Amino acid sequence: MRPRSVDLSETVNPRKGLGARDWAAVRSLMPYLLAFKGRVVVAMGCLILAKAANVGVPLLLKQIIDRLSPGRGALLVPLGLVLAYGALRFSTTLFNELRDGVFAKVTQRAIRQVALSVFQHLHALNLRFHLERQTGGLSRDIERGTRGIESLLRFTLFSILPTLVEMLMVALILAWKYDGWFAVITLVTLGIYIVLTVVITEWRTHFRRRMNELDSRANARAVDSLLNYETVKYFGNEAWEAARYDENLAHWEQAAVKSQTSLAFLNVMQSLIIGVGSVLLMWRAADGVTEGRLTVGDLVMINALLLQLYMPLNFLGVVYREIKQSLTDMDRLFRLLTVETEIRDIPGSLPLRVDGGAIRFEGVSFAYDPRRPILHHVDFEIPAGHKVAVVGSSGAGKSTLARLLFRFFETGEGRILIDEQDIRQVTQSSLRSVIGIVPQDTVLFNDTLYANIAYGRPEAAREEVLQAARAAHIHAFIEGLPEQYETQVGERGLKLSGGEKQRVAIARTLLKAPPILVFDEATSALDSHFEREIQEELASMARHHTTLVIAHRLSTIVDADQILVMEQGRIVERGTHAQLLEQAGRYAELWALQQAEADQPG
Q1: pLDDT, tens only, 538-580
Q2: What Rg do the C-alpha atoms of the chain give, in angstroms?
Q3: pLDDT tens digit sequence for 16-40
Q4: Both 272 and 382 in a single domain?
Q5: Is residue 275 domain-shared with residue 381, that is, in the same domain?
Q6: What is the edge-to-edge ordering of all strands in the sheet holding 435-438?
Q7: Alpha-helical runs (H) found in 475-563
Q8: Which residues of the chain have pLDDT under 50?
Q9: Which positions ≥6 away from 325 have C-beta within 8 Å?
Q10: Is 12 part of a structural domain of the chain?
Q11: Same-domain check for residues 262 and 161
């Protein structure tokens, strides 16, 4: 059964505000924050103290101005208030910085743990997911998602929440010290401002979502093209690749222009609302001063409170947009964690116990797509310590046998046994720890030669790594390089030839030293000189291991204990090299054809 797929490009209705996915993203983040409850509480305390000090500044400013009015006391009293004014200003900064410092560990640890969880989950997903994904778009989603976590926490806890606290404090002060109209005008202005910001931001959110999707698509196209740099050059398709890339960028440009123009409209409307609210409040205050109900200090205090309140409000639109964008980015990130894998360890599964490593395929059928079956009731056995080779034309299903043995996919019918244990009943980690493979298409990490060989057993001593390189006949080549084992191989090992990469892969598998070996065209990229040398080494290894060899060159498997000939997903012949030649069937035809090719002058 295939896993439930998740369309990461799906968008949320931009008119629904904070939707179910947004809240789901927030809920997904909460466990990472609650790991530091103490720090969260202390940070919230600092936040409230900072806002209390900030609101207290205009109150002291009123007292200072009123005290300095003609006939209102000596200079000594305002001097004390001035010092208190400075202390409150400093306290605002102090508590804000303390809040940031205390909460920094919470934010960074949450980012680290989420990124690690996604990384581990991606490695746990089945091969089908990784065959269908686009690396560029996926890496961009992870990058934006982790950055979105930091943005969400910063804007929500350090912008939205403080602004709401300050709004409440200001409204209470205005209602307490003056008539209720001050509080009403303030709250109504803020309410209209917030509603307008939310409505317009929701309207323009889909432009931003579209920008993200097109950005990921363009990035995926660029990465895919650059990874296939040589192919592009071989066919002279630089202009065609640039045109395809520019097509994605053109769509992105259109979405970006709409996003920017809608942002300008939002900013104008926000400024209009704040301007109207400010005029009404200052008119009420000025009228109170002229009638003698308010002092000049009251006018200055109201003006200062409004400035302090409207300054973060000017930023509130940006904050809300950033929060929405952060939630969108986090949604894509956390939805990666919801992608299910079709390969799971069953509850209570035990590690594989290997006693010889005998392998048996019993009636195995398989299809990557139900409409196109690959294997049909395949039966064969590899006794412990024996070597079985599989040959056949391309597409016959040979490499699929190795993927099923590693349990990258589940069999459709039948089962695979190792030492009489169904591989579906044991843990995947223990299964893969006992199998080593030299694949046909060797891909190396963008690291040193030493690191790539040592990857077979990272804890191995240096001498063991060098010995594996000698056995794979690549030690002399490495020693002749300027940087020797510290030579960087480039992305996917592109700085090495096909034969050099294959010998690194062989060395890596030799270092792992597993009881079961799989050679999938293990020497296909080697010249005849190195092929003979390494075939001798592989033959020596196979004497002590259970070995499955998937081969194209029949000359490399003449010593196999049994040879299976596959055609269209079925085993059509089996036997030793000599027996199959005597049968004069498909294997004999392939042998005669390859011998004729070898006899032709080069």
Answers
A1: 666 666 788 898 887 787 788 888 999 988 888 888 888 888 8
A2: 35
A3: 445 566 666 666 677 767 777 788 7
A4: no
A5: no
A6: 435-438, 516-520, 546-550, 387-392, 562-567, 570-575
A7: 475-479, 498-512, 528-542
A8: 1-17, 74
A9: 148, 151, 205, 208
A10: no
A11: yes
